[in-house]
From TrEMBL:
<dbReference type="GO" id="GO:0051287">
    <property type="term" value="F:NAD binding"/>
</dbReference>
<dbReference type="GO" id="GO:0006065">
    <property type="term" value="P:UDP-glucuronate biosynthetic process"/>
</dbReference>
<feature type="binding site">
    <location>
        <position position="43"/>
    </location>
    <ligand>
        <name>NAD(+)</name>
    </ligand>
</feature>
<comment type="pathway">
    <text>Nucleotide-sugar biosynthesis; UDP-alpha-D-glucuronate biosynthesis; UDP-alpha-D-glucuronate from UDP-alpha-D-glucose: step 1/1.</text>
</comment>
<dbReference type="GO" id="GO:0003979">
    <property type="term" value="F:UDP-glucose 6-dehydrogenase activity"/>
</dbReference>
<feature type="binding site">
    <location>
        <position position="335"/>
    </location>
    <ligand>
        <name>substrate</name>
    </ligand>
</feature>
<dbReference type="Pfam" id="PF03720">
    <property type="entry name" value="UDPG_MGDP_dh_C"/>
</dbReference>
<feature type="domain" description="UDP-glucose/GDP-mannose dehydrogenase C-terminal">
    <location>
        <begin position="328"/>
        <end position="429"/>
    </location>
</feature>
<feature type="binding site">
    <location>
        <position position="216"/>
    </location>
    <ligand>
        <name>substrate</name>
    </ligand>
</feature>
<dbReference type="Pfam" id="PF03721">
    <property type="entry name" value="UDPG_MGDP_dh_N"/>
</dbReference>
<keyword id="KW-0560">Oxidoreductase</keyword>
<feature type="binding site">
    <location>
        <position position="38"/>
    </location>
    <ligand>
        <name>NAD(+)</name>
    </ligand>
</feature>
<dbReference type="InterPro" id="IPR028357">
    <property type="entry name" value="UDPglc_DH_bac"/>
</dbReference>
<feature type="binding site">
    <location>
        <begin position="161"/>
        <end position="164"/>
    </location>
    <ligand>
        <name>substrate</name>
    </ligand>
</feature>
<keyword id="KW-0520">NAD</keyword>
<protein>
    <recommendedName>
        <fullName>UDP-glucose 6-dehydrogenase</fullName>
        <ecNumber>1.1.1.22</ecNumber>
    </recommendedName>
</protein>
<dbReference type="Pfam" id="PF00984">
    <property type="entry name" value="UDPG_MGDP_dh"/>
</dbReference>
Length: 445
């Protein structure tokens, strides 16, 4: 309506990585005027010229559309951001601190501090980054001491649940919105900033600041626990000759359990789950309630053991010795449909095999450039058959659709030995065995 248009806030998005670029582009597509801000001038230049600096299905098309509409621009200037925005979304990174389980909050602190200096009117600053509970309260103090007199700045939290690979859909049609607010005004501003999403019937949970911060930690801890739970069952299966895929299938028919995220395999990685569960247990310990989430240490340990077990299976198939074995590693990204290699189980396994003396060639449809930058010592390729020529063992580490569709006969014709470890239960064992392959998978006889 006219009324909605008149009251539509102008938005800035501070930090234009996987989360921020997606948020900025989608909000512009929804009809808002949006300014994206980042400290990385290269990223800003690429975005302004219509290039998404990472792999995310559907996003390049929407960036083109948003730039064409004139509703989206990107800048490195915080002064411009302060001038432009009514509602500012903070989407900068919160990685794990080196040598600690805690979250590194320096980017959040500096983004909010820098922005606050340039705020001149009544403004809402909304954190979307994943942060330890208590961060919003601390940032409120930073803003109060930094913003010029007369600028009436309030802080809110709106945790983000998007999944890489489905980021566009998750942003345009989220399962729910969570608003952590300290006033009715902040709630009203957030409702205005998400009006088109709320109008679709998206549930909104309005709560206080600490609860909103905790929702994200609790959600990711639950998901990580579900994955590690079924992987713990895989360890038991390995000791008994049972089959974890049939076990998982049988569990999944119980609606109270459900099959999503109950997939056994190489386990979780990426820029979120591992560091988020660690930051959560670290924060709980600081608060004196570490015991409440001490199981997250076990969730993490189970997850790490899957990587070690995958290396062991490759060693077994290589005849007990990795030195000199030619291994083709299918996958580098932490999951399919992403080029994100942060804490990627696939690359962790590939690197460990390489360190043990194997000759490893890594294949990935999207993540080879990122992987090569991080681990220049490994060999890389994009063509499966070319890379696998002469291989002693093939190991599937990321379940890209193109790997699921590999023809075992075609691959069998080029390898030196038909031996495959399926780290993601992505292949049909019967089909591969029928084609003469020695097929091994985690948690399966
Ligand atoms: P990212 O590393 O891709 O992006 C972070 C961006 O922030 C980078 O472009 C960096 O240049 C920029 N930046 C750093 N300091 C800055 C500053 N002071 N001012 C402006 N920009 C600055 O990280 P990401 O994956 O987008 O994650 C961002 C946050 O969102 C994290 O807290 C993460 O946990 C959370 N999150 C991520 C996802 C996801 O799927 N990637 C999902 C939900 C939540």
């Amino acid at each position: 309506s006219d009324d909605t248009e008149r009251t539509a806030p102008r938005l800035t998005v501070i930090g234009t990585g996987y989360l921020g670029a997606t948020h900025a582009i989608c909000m512009a597509v929804l009809g808002f005027d949006v300014l994206g801000v980042d400290v990385d001038p290269d990223k800003i230049e690429r975005l302004n010229s219509g290039e998404v600096p990472f792999f995310e299905p559907g996003l390049p098309e929407l960036l083109a559309k948003a730039l064409d509409s004139g509703r989206l621009r990107f800048t490195t200037s915080f002064a411009e951001a302060g001038e432009f925005g009514d509602v500012h979304f903070v989407c900068v990174g919160t990685p794990q601190l080196p040598g600690s389980f805690g979250a590194d909050l320096r980017y959040v602190d500096s983004a909010v501090g820098e922005l606050a200096q340039h705020l001149r009117r009544r403004t809402l600053v909304v954190g979307k980054s994943t942060v330890p509970v208590g961060t919003a309260a601390r940032l409120t103090e930073i803003v109060r001491s930094t913003a010029p007199a007369g600028a009436d700045v309030e802080l809110a939290w709106n945790p983000e649940f998007l999944r890489e690979g489905y980021a566009v859909d998750d942003t345009l049609r989220p399962d729910r919105l969570v608003f952590g607010v300290a006033s009715e005004w902040a709630e009203e501003r957030l409702r205005a900033a998400f009006a088109p999403v709320i109008a679709q019937g998206t549930p909104v949970v309005v709560t206080d600041l600490p609860t909103s911060e905790l929702v994200k930690a609790a959600a990711n801890s639950f998901l990580a626990t579900k994955i590690s739970y079924i992987n713990a069952m895989a360890e038991i299966c390995e000791a008994t000759g049972a089959d974890v895929t049939a076990l998982a299938q049988a569990l999944a028919y119980d609606d109270r359990i459900g099959g999503r995220f109950l997939k056994p395999g190489l386990g979780f990685g990426g820029g979120c789950l591992p560091k988020d569960i660690r930051a959560f247990s670290h924060r709980a310990e600081e608060l004196g309630v570490g015991q409440a989430v001490s199981f997250l240490r076990e969730v993490d340990a189970i997850n790490q053991r899957r990587r070690a077990r995958t290396v062991d299976l490759v060693r077994e198939l290589a005849g007990g010795e990795l030195a000199g074995a030619r291994v083709t590693a299918l996958g580098a990204a932490f999951k399919p449909n992403s080029d994100d290699i942060r804490d990627a189980p696939a690359l962790d396994v590939a690197r460990t095999l390489h360190q043990a003396g194997a000759e490893v060639t890594v294949i990935d449809p999207a993540a080879v450039d990122n992987a090569r930058r991080a681990y220049p010592d490994l060999q890389y390729g994009t063509d499966v058959l070319a890379a696998a020529t002469g291989a002693d063992v093939v190991v599937l580490l990321t379940e890209w659709a193109e790997f699921r569709e590999i023809d075992p006969h075609a691959l069998g014709a080029v390898v030196a030995r038909r031996r495959i470890v399926d780290g993601r239960h992505a292949l049909d064992p019967a089909q591969w065995r029928a084609a003469g392959w020695d097929y091994r998978a985690l948690g399966r006889p």
